[in-house]
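Researcher: Sit down with what I've pasted below and flag anything odd:
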Amino acid sequence: MKERRAIDKAKKFDTFSGEESRLDGELAGDEHCSIAGKFTGRCRLSGVLRIETTGNWEGDIEAEVVIIRGMVKGNIRGRSKIEIGRKGSVAGNLSAPTIAIAEGGTVDGEIDMGTGGKVTHFTERREEKEKTTEQ
């Protein structure tokens, strides 16, 4: 299978917070993390951060790849890519060399891709069940 999407690059998520989780503080590390609950604070990952459709993040995010399927209120910096799914919603500024926004995904803020960056619009064709099969 061809790895076209950011999610294809993260085969396994090392850290997962459930839908009922409420976390405050800083998330930092080298692994891939998936958030399905509410998180308030800052993120600094060298891996992939995925906010699930039930996830709600308030605070700034910095990671290699950021995948938003839920809601984020804060600025996001993706060192290589930011991907916003069809149910994803961001209230804040985005900064990454590549930004992909699915039909239905929303951004209320500025987008900075530097020189040579690109925005890709796409139609989400994958099922929501993908969340449970990739963990």
